[in-house]
Write a structure and sequence with these properties.
Distance between the termini: 66 Å
Oligomer: single chain
Shape: globular
Order of helices and strands: EEEEEEEEHEHEHEHEEEEHHH
Number of domains: 3
Radius of gyration: 21 Å
Low-confidence stretches: 205-219, 306-315
Helix content: 10-25%
Length: 315
């Protein structure tokens, strides 16, 4: 009888899962039966980062029979089934969102949607503003405003450039001894940053489409890489948006720190900060204590709108 083995999923291709055993061996495993995790409707039963128990099927492949409990996970809307979620990765120490002000531009709506999604699943996030070497004087002003805004509400931010090595030493410290999921639109330079930090890693770098100023997708499936001993990064496909799966509209404001701290100052205890009189949040927006773009992103999330807001209008 085959004895059970333990490992972690480091790559998913849909049908097969690449598992790294506790001894460091890597082999492909299939899934035995169906898994349903906490009743969550997902298009993928297993994800990168899952700790699994399996047994060998033959010399080269195994069969996964059990998944260990997850400490957390990060999800997005399924691209094909809007009512379902797709688990991007699990058992994560931190999320790093890589954003750019141009070539391509990352909307603050995308940033805020990821921050809310990660906070809902207890994943701390740091914001990396990349490609600092290409910004105009006006964009540098916008960059300063964004970093100040996010720092003021409690998020660590870092400005980086793979070309000039700006911020790379601190980025290396961020990644050390952590399991990090790295997200961002295609073309923002995730792979370039990692390839610069870890020579020989050779992640594929996507060409930028000059027609639409959006990167071409280079990653089809999430994959976890050990960049140095005890430090892992999970590279993700270019993601259009994160859906607020399994979250009530009344809960969204809880994950906007600057709104949450004003909750007890609103006239109504169940204030949604949209139409109620005596709302402390709306007052804070009007007097500039809460940035208007953050409030607009909040309203867009409640309405289920795409995150196309110009991030610097009506601050």
């Amino acid at each position: 009888m085959q004895s059970d083995k333990q490992g972690i999923i480091i790559k998913s291709t849909g049908k097969w899962y690449l598992v790294q055993t506790t001894e460091g061996e890597k082999l492909y495993c299939a899934l035995k039966g169906k898994f349903r995790i906490k009743g969550l409707k997902t298009t993928n039963p297993l994800a990168v980062g899952d700790n699994v128990i399996f047994h060998m099927q033959d010399e080269d492949t195994g069969v996964i029979k059990h998944i260990k409990p997850r400490s957390n996970y990060i999800i997005r809307k399924s691209t094909k089934l809007s009512s379902q979620a797709h688990i991007i990765a699990s058992n994560i120490d931190q999320g790093l969102i890589v954003a750019t002000l141009s070539y391509p531009r990352t909307s603050t709506g995308f940033i805020d949607r990821f921050l809310v999604t990660a906070a809902a699943y207890h994943i701390p996030v740091k914001i990396i503003f990349n490609k600092s070497d290409i910004y105009t004087e006006e964009e540098n002003v916008q960059l300063k405003e964004l970093t100040q805004t996010y720092k003021a509400i409690g998020y660590e931010t870092l400005v980086t450039s793979a070309k000039t090595s700006d911020g790379l030493e601190q980025l290396q410290d961020y990644l050390d001894q952590k399991r990090s999921v790295i997200v961002g639109h295609s073309g923002v330079g995730k792979s370039a940053l990692l390839n610069t930090l870890v020579p020989g890693m050779n992640l594929r770098i996507g060409d930028l489409s000059h027609v639409h100023l959006k990167g071409k997708h280079t990653t089809t499936f999430a994959e976890m890489h050990e960049i140095w001993k005890g430090s892992y990064v999970i590279d993700t496909p270019g993601i259009k948006e994160f859906g607020l799966i399994d979250m009530e509209k009344e809960e969204v404001h809880l994950f906007f720190p600057e709104m949450f701290k004003l909750n007890d100052q609103c006239r109504f205890y169940n204030c949604t900060h949209v139409h109620e009189p005596g709302c402390a949040v709306k007052k804070a927006v009007e007097n500039g204590e809460i940035k208007r773009f953050r409030y607009k992103n909040y309203l867009n999330m409640l309405q289920g709108n795409e995150m196309n807001l110009n991030p610097w209008e009506q601050k």
